[in-house]
Amino acid sequence: MKLSLTVPTPLEYFSSLVRAEAQVHLLETAVSLGQEDDPGLDVQQVLAEVDNMQARLRRRLPADAPAMHRLRLLNHFFFEDLHFGGNLNNYYDPANSYLHKVIDSRRGIPVSLAVLWLELAQGLGLAAHGVGFPGHFLVKVNLPQAQVVIDPFSGHSLSREELLFRLEAWRSNHGQPAISELPLGHYLQALPARDIIARMLRNLKEIHCTQRDWKRFVAVEDRLLVLLPQAWDEYRDRGLALAELGRLAPAVQDLETYLGRAGEGGDTGEIARRLAALRRELG
Fold first, then answer.
1. C-alpha to C-alpha distances, 172 to 11, 138, 177, nearest whole angstrom
2. Is 141 left (phi over 0), alpha (psi -120 to 50) or beta?
3. How far is residue 126's CA from residue 202's CA, in Å, rounded to a whole number?
4. Which of 60, 71, 128, 145 has its CA 20 to 30 A from that of 226?
5. d(CA 220, CA 238)
6. What are phi and psi of 270, to 5 degrees?
7. What is the 3-state secondary structure (H, E, C) of the chain?
C-alpha cells in the first residue's frame, strides 16, 4: 500500500497548536511564528535546543534549593552565562520576534525573551508568569513570602516604585489620566499563553505595517484570526492590507465581515466607503 503523507503548511501547523479550547503550549507556538520568516524551520529542533539549556541549568541546581536560590541561578544563567538581552541597536527588527533567531543572536524584545525565560523558570518548578504590563512585557515569580517582577529585556528586578513610575510614564505618553482607580496589581496579572502569542503577533503586525510589507502583514493577520476568530478589527486590517496587494475579492469579504460585526464603530463610515470603491473596481 502506498502512503501519501502531506506536510502541513506553517499556517495549518499554527492552527493545530491554537485550536479552540486547546491549552496553548507557549514555547512551541511562539517558535512556530518563525515559520513566517522561514517556512522550512524545524520547530522540534529549536525546542530541543531549549531542552538542552534546561538540562544545563538543572545540572547546576541542588535538589533542595529554595525558590529564591533557583530564581537567582536562573537569572545568572540566562542573562550572564548565555548573554540574553534586549536588542537595543535594532529593536524593530522582525527577527526579534522569531525565537530561533533570538536563540542564535541572544537578542530580542521583552516578550520573546520572556517566553524563553518562562520556559526555563517553569522547568525549575518556579511559579513564573508573563505579565502584559502596558508598553513593556514583564515576568513575575511568586515566591513563598514575596512576588518578584523582572524586566526580561535587562534582567533587572523592579520595585513597586519603579513599576509605578513606568505606569505613570506610559499613561502620560498615551494621554491617560495621571491618577487611576485601578491598583498596580491590576497591571501585574498573569497573562494566558494565548494572549502572549497575540501580543507577539501584534508586535510583528505593527512592524510590517510601518514597513508597508503587506504580504507579511497579511500572514500575521491570518494567524491572529486563527488565534482570535472574533477579533473583528483584524478582519478590517487584513482587508485593507489585501486591497493594497490588489487582492480585491478577499479584501471585500473581510471588510464586509468587519462591517457586519463591528456595530457602529467610529470608522464604519470610512470603511463602508472603501468597501464600495473596491466593489466598483471588481465590477
1. 39, 20, 7
2. beta
3. 28
4. 128
5. 9
6. -65, -45
7. CCCCCCCCCHHHHHHHHCCCCCCCCHHHHHHHHHHHCCCCCCHHHHHHHHHHHHHHHHHCCCCCCCHHHHHHHHHHHHHHHCCCEECCCCCCCHHHHCHHHHHHHCEECHHHHHHHHHHHHHHCCCEEEEECCCCCCEEEEECCCCEEEECCCCCCECCHHHHHHHHHHHHHHCCCCCCCCCCHHHHHCECCHHHHHHHHHHHHHHHHHHCCCHHHHHHHHHHHHHHCCCCHHHHHHHHHHHHHCCCHHHHHHHHHHHHHHCCCCCCHHHHHHHHHHHHHHHC
Grid cell listed for 243: 486591497
Sign of CA dihedral 99, 101, 104, 109: negative
In this structure, are residues 71 and 126 in contact, taking their beta carbons and an 8 Å threshold? yes
pLDDT digits (tens, 9 = 90+) for 53-99: 999 999 999 888 999 999 999 999 999 999 999 999 999 999 999 99
